[in-house]
Design goal:
The chain has 151 residues and is α+β, with helices and mostly antiparallel strands. It has 6 helices and 4 strands. The longest helix is centred in the C-terminal third of the chain and has 23 residues, at 123-145.
């Protein structure tokens, strides 16, 4: 039973990390200009979603630190809720689009890019791949244990 739970956790974590990596792929998914949007991604396990910043910092971080995502996901178990959210003030506008006047009085007519939703559509495939990888790892481990030991 413990091994099954551990495998489920591994599949959940692996598929989640792959989804975030896909979402963070510059050009084909996340739009990349300065890198500030990509670097603003925050991942939370079983907590409230991070709120967008009201104002952008004068010198925003432009480098995405995947190690923070990996360490956060490592604490998750199958059944937990993992939230990945961009915290730049303009992230929602880029994802969903915006038509109207913004807070600076500019008239905007911007179509949404939908990169997070497009990445999320890959979830079933990513879970299947992670499950196959976990099965292969178990099979390789079992094959290694069945080899005769040299003396």
């Amino acid at each position: 039973m413990q091994q099954t739970k551990a495998r489920m956790d591994a599949v959940f974590r692996t598929a989640t990390l792959r989804l975030i990596q896909l979402m963070q792929t510059p050009g084909s998914y996340v739009p990349l200009d300065t890198g500030a949007l990509r670097a603003s991604l925050v991942v939370v396990v079983n907590g409230p979603p991070p709120q967008p910043r009201e104002e952008e910092p004068k010198h925003p971080t432009t480098t995405w630190d995947e190690s923070m995502v990996i360490s956060t996901i490592a604490t998750a178990h199958a059944g937990d809720v993992i939230t990945a959210a961009y915290t730049t003030a303009y992230a929602r506008r880029l994802e969903y689009g915006f038509v109207g006047q913004d807070s600076l009085g500019r008239n905007i007519n911007q179509a949404g890019l939908g990169w997070t939703r497009r990445a999320a559509q890959q979830w079933p495939r990513l879970v299947e791949e992670a499950a196959r990888d976990a099965q292969a790892a178990v099979a390789a481990n079992q094959a290694g244990q069945n080899r005769p030991r040299r003396r």
